[in-house]
Specification:
heterodimer, A: 145 residues, alpha+beta, two-stranded antiparallel ribbon, two-stranded antiparallel sheet, 4 strands, B: mainly alpha, 2 strands, 6% strand, flat
Chain lengths: 145, 135
């Protein structure tokens, strides 16, 4: 049924945006992190989105043209950006170099907050799409009453 | 009385297409931030009008013995048209989805869907009334 597929598409949007919120949370939490497993300061993470046809099984592939156009979204990968770290003068810091500079993560907390609001709005838009699909399906059950 | 008459066929076809349109809009909203994604539109009004052929102007006529009577296509092979929105404004990531526009379209689509359900119920109610009227 089409409406169930609509809900699946919207839920893919929810999952992708949740992943984005996760990355943003990680960025904000690690805004001061100077030591990481891969060495050096924390690098800002960003989520890349990609779209794919909303097909789950062979029957869906056979179904026809419309389904090729309706696209799910998925977070394809989480990339660590290559922005150079910010050097901050703090000779008392345990990770300061010989000149007294500390390499801090290149994270602008304001930007992360703005990204978070945008991700939240995207999440809400998908939620209201699910609600619309749901109430359409419920309305269809009234036929013949 | 024809139980599955033209009106009911048109109503059910309309509901089917509105469900498809809902799917299309969901896809647009979900991909509002996917780089390179283009907003898609689904057009079924023309195909439905051709199938209904209220004024008899849209059907293909048979004027020669060698012509095949294809009629107006009927409801069996109704095909909606899917295309990328030509009026979309491309943003910096190559995406043309306008989320507010999609939400407005979704609301409109839902209202029309609910109207179709109500009309179907009215039509079925009339048929029920006919079936029970002789008692």
């Amino acid at each position: 049924m089409d409406l169930l597929k609509s809900m699946k598409i919207s839920s893919s949007g929810l999952a992708a945006n949740r992943k984005r919120i996760e990355a943003i949370s990680s960025n904000i939490a690690n805004a001061q992190t100077t030591r990481t497993a891969e060495g050096g300061p924390y690098r800002r993470k960003e989520v890349a989105f990609g779209s794919e046809p909303a097909r789950d099984n062979f029957a869906d592939i056979l179904e026809g043209e419309i389904d090729a156009h309706a696209q799910k979204v998925h977070a394809t990968e989480v990339v660590s950006t290559n922005e150079p770290p910010i050097l901050k003068y703090d000779p008392t810091h345990p990770d300061a170099n010989a000149d007294g500079y500390v390499a801090m993560p290149n994270i602008n907390v304001m930007k992360e907050m703005a990204d978070m609001i945008s991700a939240q709005r995207a999440y809400e838009a998908n939620i209201s799409a699910i609600n619309t699909s749901k109430s359409m399906a419920m309305k269809a059950l009234e036929i013949g009453r | 009385m024809n139980v599955n008459d033209k009106t009911l066929q048109a109503l059910t076809a309309g509901m089917k297409f509105r469900e498809m349109r809902q799917e299309m809009i969901s896809s647009n909203v979900a991909n509002a931030e996917t780089p390179g994604y283009k907003a898609k539109r689904l057009d079924f009004e023309k195909a439905l009008a051709r199938a209904l052929d209220v004024d008899g102007q849209m059907g293909m006529k048979v004027e020669d013995g060698q012509h095949y009577d294809v009629g107006n296509g009927g409801f069996e092979n109704l095909e909606p048209e899917v295309y990328e929105d030509p009026n979309g404004v491309v943003n910096e990531s190559g995406n043309t989805v306008n989320r507010e526009d999609e939400m407005a379209r979704m609301a409109q689509n839902k209202i029309m869907y609910d109207a179709l359900v109500q009309l179907t119920n009215k039509k079925l109610g009339m048929k029920k009334y006919i079936l029970n009227s002789e008692r």
